[in-house]
Amino acid sequence: MEKLKDYILLHLNIMLFSFTSVFSKLASQQFNKHGLFSAGMIGFSFLMLLNCFVYAIAWQKVIKKFDLNVAYANRTVYLIWSQIWAVFIFHESLTVTNMIGLLVVFIGVLVVQKYE
């Protein structure tokens, strides 16, 4: 049960990190619409940096409970979260090629997990 809790924390941390790309894209959109010193651009850039800071601290705490190869293999799940945010937040399309790529990543994580 303790290992399950550790994996949940690991994946919540990875999900947290995936919001960095969301804030980055939102900052980019604000830059394109309103310029470099707009409130939206500065706000989303700040959120992006704050998110990276919180993630870095949490990541250091979480990876103490795993072998590094397992932790970094699981970190590739970031790609899945990024695709989820792209579809649900930015209304981008998910292609068959995207899904195949995500499946390959997921299988790779499962393979690493099997040999932990």
The mean pLDDT is 91
Shape: flat
Straight-line distance between termini: 16 Å
Q: How many distinct domains? A: 1
Low-confidence stretches: none
Structural class: mainly alpha
Largest sheet: none
SSE order, as H and E? HHHHH
Strand element count: 0
- Quickly count the helices: 5
In a few lines, what is going on in this structure?
This protein has 116 residues and is mainly alpha-helical. The protein has one domain.
What does this structure look like?
The chain has helices at 2-34, 39-62, 68-75, 78-88, 96-114. With 116 residues, the protein is mainly α. The chain has one domain (2-114). Helix 3 (68-75) runs antiparallel to helix 5. The radius of gyration is 16 Å and the shape is flat. The chain crosses the membrane at residues 7-24, 36-58, 70-90, 96-112.
